[in-house]
Request: fold
Amino acid sequence: MGLVDQAAYAAAIRHARMPVVTVCVDHLTFLKHIHIGDIITVRASVNYVGHTSMEVGVRVETERMTTGVVEHVGSAYLTMVALGEDGKPASVSPLIVETEDEIRRQNEAQERRAYQLSLVGKNSGTKP
Reply:
């Protein structure tokens, strides 16, 4: 989990070009266990940008050194918020999506965000 958060932090700060904090881990799935001696690769991408927040998707893979087999072992979605010099949430540049994969990831992130906001509205008794 620490590697996932560090990768999300790196992707978010690279996009925002300012400090960021993890607000929540929206989804974390462990698909397989990691064996001692495996090489771990963690990839992160900013999937969606709101006003001050960003959804970062993280993919964890391992490579078994004795066989060279690479496996997808985990995935996560984290929400990161950019912070200004005053330590308060700050505006983030929009995300520029160009490839089909980037467009798909952004659309899926928007669906997750809409679902999360609908839950907030149900729990608070008000509409999001």
